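COMPLEX REQUEST
Ligand: guanosine-5'-diphosphate
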Amino acid sequence: MGDSEAAESSLLTRLGWSAARQTELDALGDGALMPARVVVEHRGAYGLAGCAVASARPAGRLRDAGERWPAVGDWVAVAPTGKNVSGGGVIQHVLERTSLLERKRPGAVRAQAVAANVDVVFVVTTAEKAPNLRRVERTLAIVAASGARAVVVLNKIDLARDPEGDLAALASVSGAAPCLATSAATAQGLEALRARLPSGATGALIGPSGTGKSSLINALLGGDRQATGAVRLGDAKGRHTTTRRELLELPGGACLIDTPGMRELGLWEAGEGIDRTFAELTELAGACRFRDCQHQGEPGCAVAAALANGTIDADRVASFAKLRREDAFVERQQDPRSAAANKGRWKTIHKQQRARRLVDPKLSDD
Ligand code: GDP
Ligand code: ZN
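STATUS: Structure written out below.
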């Protein structure tokens, strides 16, 4: 391996390239294909990292049903268009995803991929005011459905009115997700945040505007993100535009994905995520006399009994019911085939998780 090849391969490792991905690429059986990670998409052109080809367009075939269309964070197999790699390339395959964050577009039947292969999502809240626990639960459900792990972040801890109270409230709804207190202003807690992003890992931040996501990203980058590089992309007519990369490399060798869509993620196919986020309520509902109990005053309702004796919180039950209703609505709008495909995917993931828990009952998502 030459020096530049060796440098390229350690860059691939920092970007999250793995033995499993190498195996998948090898199985494609085409030596001309190069691995690369998508760092930005702009008007149908994709900026790439880890590869000599800096920009590429997807092969038309990837629009077919059953194929994956590339998104920021994806690992792709690229073929150069001509002899000269600066001429760009064609994305021939999108490799298996370990996670996928999707956004529901109003009125659209299909979800839009927002980011792929994110390992950990930081759910950012601010300590300036009491945390909106319902919103945190909702976001945790979306993250759980994506296949990524969640970490709850209470930022602006330097401005906190009631740091212990807020952290306790967040911990009461966060399940297996750890809760961290940070300040982008004083750097408190940033080491704990970095510890969640080892070399090769990919993180993303979700949360309302003004909670300090950009400030945290800049702090993790150790400077201004403007410095971390623009990408030049060629369009189909050979014109070039410069755009901001959305997958950023951190000094410690991890990556962060920051896309506008990430910040406004809606609820989409979060069903299984909702059940896991509200695990104690899902379990309780299993003790209701009727299997299809709606917990609306039916006889033998375990949820009503727990509400009556104060062991569960009425706001949390209402939030659970609301998310379930929204999710059912989304599912009805979706086309049956992709809904069925999603169910299949979740069955497999859950079987694996159950199997893992049986091996080690203490195993948590953390
Ligand atoms: P975003 O919309 O979530 O990206 O939030 P920004 O990063 O733009 O931050 C919003 C405002 O809060 C800015 O004025 C920041 O300087 C400020 N800010 C962000 N994090 C902190 C923090 O930890 N402490 C304090 N005191 N201010 C912060
Ligand atoms: Zn019930």
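REMARKS: The radius of gyration is 22 Å. The first helix runs from residue 3 to 15.
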